[in-house]
Amino acid sequence: MDIYAIQAVHGLVYGMLLFLVASGLTLVFGMMGVLNLAHAAFYMLGAYFAYTITIHLGNFWLGLILAPLIVGAIGIGIEHFSLRKVHKSGHVAELLLTFGLFYVIGELVRIFWGSNPLRIPVPGLLLGEIPFMGKTYPIYRIFIIGFSFVILIGMALLLLKTRIGIIIRAAVSDADMVEALGANVPRVFMAVFGGGAALAAVAGVIAAPFLSTYPGMGLDVLLDCFVVIVVGGFGSLLGAFITSLLLGELQSFGVLWIPRLALVFQFVLMAVVLIVRPTGLFGEKQ
Amino acid sequence: MNRVAAIKVTGGTLTCLFLLLLPILLPEIQVHLATEILIFALFAVSFNLLLGYSGLLPFGHAACFGVGAYATALILKSVTGMPFLMTILISAVSGFAAALIIGFFCVRLSGGYFALISLAFQMFLYAVALKWRDVTGGDDGMSVTRPEFYLPGVGTLPLTNIHYLYYITLVIVALATVACYLFLKTPLGNAAICIRENATRASFLGYDVFLTRLIMFSFSGLLAGISGALFVVFQEFVATNVLDVHMSFTVLLMATIGGTGHFLGPVLGAAFFMVFQDWISSVTKHWLLFMGIVFVIVVLYAEGGLIELFKWERMRVLFVRNKEL
Predict the structure, then answer these.
(1) Do B108 and A278 touch (CB under 8 A)?
(2) Is the separation of the CB atoms in B247 and B65 below 8 Å?
(3) Could you tell me if B252 lies within 8 Å of chain A, comparing CB atoms?
(4) Is residue A284 included in any domain, yes or no?
(5) Where are the domains of chain B?
(6) How many domains does chain A have?
(7) Taking all residues of chain B, what is their mean pLDDT, rounded to a whole number?
(8) In a domain, A226, yes or no
(9) Could A271 and B120 be called an inter-chain contact, meaning their C-beta atoms sit closer than 8 Å?
(10) CB of B246 less than 8 A from some CB of A
(11) pLDDT tens sequence across B246-283
(12) Each residue of B99-115: b (16+ CB within 10 Å) or e?
């Protein structure tokens, strides 16, 4: 029984991380129809910036604050100076652009930080393990769950209770109409893009001591994120949340039970959902 | 004959001559590169049937390439005495069959949805190739020996000789490319372009959007299967890399850099990609960075791709006397 509980918590840790990355992706897609491949690069950049800050300043928490800010600024820059320019050329051009940026950022990371995995030490405060179901469990992973949960609550409050949240949600369902009603949708979109990038970076920072930092981490999480937003429904935050947790558990138990098929699971799930219900579990009509 | 046609014919003839004499003109190492360019040119052309002519962007186009590659590898490994062209034909048919099945589920969707579901199928095949070790060799791959080609009246030509392999590849790629060009000139090809421009309108005009896209997708899979087969013969080796994301992304880079708006754009893109890669990887190991930068610049500032540089409107200045301008 213990092993199942431990695996379930493992799955929850990865699921929460995945949600932090996927939430920005799904909001950006919902608002502008842009499937932002560079999003995974923001996740990776977050981890690498945090590594440098932690090594040089010796403080993990400083990295957790500064890295998302830097990455958020980079995200805003990318939206303002490149993505906006190709918007008129249609979605395929936008896809191609973010795809190219994903490649460029990935290679820049290799140049500056090298190709070997880097490890950020777990901050002293969160070292050690706590007893859990008769065994012990690392405190740091509990922290990941707790911290992601706090961000989740914050994001829910922002989206449900504030004026800008209302505008964002309205723009997800019909951007043109919201613009006609007088909201500055391009500016809101820029903010969402930057915010999403920062969130992805937060996920990268807190994942780094646990999954280690390596140049392929962007692509790995990107593929999982695709599954999350497709299965959850493009633009649906609730769908992304539920699917993230589901996928986390699926991988966690998949590795335990049928390791030979663990790689296939998520893609079969994605294909089946797209075939049976192309809008995803919680998505609205295309 | 007017001037435009004359220049086109001259350019075309010179290119053909160059391709035919290439093994004599260039050292052997360059013949290897040229063979690889030809293979990827066909792959990129098949990709452009979707992105350029059907307006569909697949992230998983390596699926059909990989199926063709594995089909050839398995034949070369387990069946002795199979004629070479038969091997290629079977690989083409397997690429076609794979595309028919994948396309059946994919082509109802478009944009990001289409991109992702095609990626899902490719990743699925990748996982199968990785895990089904008994048949595919997993990530160790399988090495194969290049077969012999029997040419009536001449005798058997061992393809281990790169010159023979180059000419066989040239003929197959040329025939496939011409077939593709003619295919696009049929009413079906026109219907595909019409659907790319406006699917709703096309369906009201009576075109079957689903069927047209499915045929385009399957034909594209057929060509990709052929290029995958040639790739295995060229490499004398097959591994999961023929089915992975990077293969899909490579062909996407090639086609877009070359230009998706023109039939020959992807061919130019493939040539540019391979030559650029060959050159710059001797200078820096971060060649992908420069490829990525070229790609971003093309998407941002030169939507038509490199082929735009060769468009008649630009060449005009060089060839036409002032008073005619």
Answers:
(1) yes
(2) yes
(3) yes
(4) no
(5) 3-244
(6) 1
(7) 87
(8) yes
(9) yes
(10) no
(11) 899 899 989 988 988 889 999 999 999 999 988 888 88
(12) bbebbebbbbbbbbbbb
**Hey, are the CB atoms on A278 and B57 less than 8 Å from each other?**
no
Query: Taking the model in full, what pTM does it have?
Result: 0.86
Nearest beta carbon to residue B289 from set A96, A104, A271: A104
Residue B145: count of CB within 10 angstroms of its CB: 12
Whether residue A216 lies inside any domain: the answer is: yes
Cβ contact, residue pair A35, B116, below 8 Å: yes
8 Å CB contact between A103 and B288:
yes
Let me know: does B258 contact B266? Beta carbons within 8 Å.
yes
Which pair of structure tokens corresponds to residue A79? 């939206």
Q: How far apart are CA B139 and CA B77, in angstroms?
A: 17
Instruction: Kindly determine whether residue A274 and residue B111, on different chains, have CB atoms separated by under 8 Å.
Output: no
Residues of A in contact with B291 (CB under 8 A): 103
Interface pTM (ipTM) of the complex? 0.80
Cβ–Cβ contact A230 with B under 8 A:
yes
pLDDT of residue B319: 58
Q: Assess if residue A285 is contained within a domain.
A: no
Q: Which domain holds residue A78?
A: 2-276
Distance from the first to the final alpha carbon of chain B: 19
B300 Cα to chain A: minimum distance (Å): 7
Task: Give the CATH number, domain containing residue A111.
Answer: 1.10.3470
Q: How many CA atoms lie within 13 A of B92 on its CB side?
A: 17
How deeply is A27 buried, as exposed, middle or buried, from its count of CB atoms within 10 A (0-12, 13-18, 19+)? buried
pLDDT digits 0-9 by tens, A1-36: 577 888 888 888 889 888 988 888 888 887 777 888
Distances (CA, A) of B31 to B18, B34, B166, B167: 12, 5, 7, 10
Amino acid at B206: G
